[in-house]
């Protein structure tokens, strides 16, 4: 088990070192090329209001309420 842990430590360390080395040695891409690929370079869509029955917070509240009721009933 200890050999596996040390092997994983060396694998992680070498992977992190290679990742840092490659990112410092390569030229960054322009933001126009990254649009739509990464969160920071993309334009976020505007969320339209939805009816209560389609709202995820409404269903989360129902699930939590049912969870607590079932915990009280089956305690």
Written overview of the protein:
The protein is mainly alpha-helical. It has one domain (2-38, 50-73). 61% of the residues lie in helices and 0% in strands. The chain has three helices and no strands. It is flat. The two termini are 42 Å apart. The model has no long low-confidence stretch (mean pLDDT 92).
Distance between the termini: 42 Å
Number of separate structural domains: 1
- Percent range for helical residues? 55-70%
The arrangement of helices and strands along the chain is HHH
Low-confidence parts: none
Which structural class should the secondary elements be placed in?
A: mainly alpha
Give the overall form: flat
Largest sheet, strands/sense/barrel: none
| Total DSSP E strands | 0
The average pLDDT is 92
Radius of gyration from the alpha-carbon trace, in angstroms: 24 Å
How much strand content do the residues show? Answer: under 5%
Question: How many DSSP H or I helices?
Answer: 3
Concise structural overview:
The protein is 61% helix and 0% strand.
Descriptive keywords:
flat; mainly alpha; single chain; 75 residues
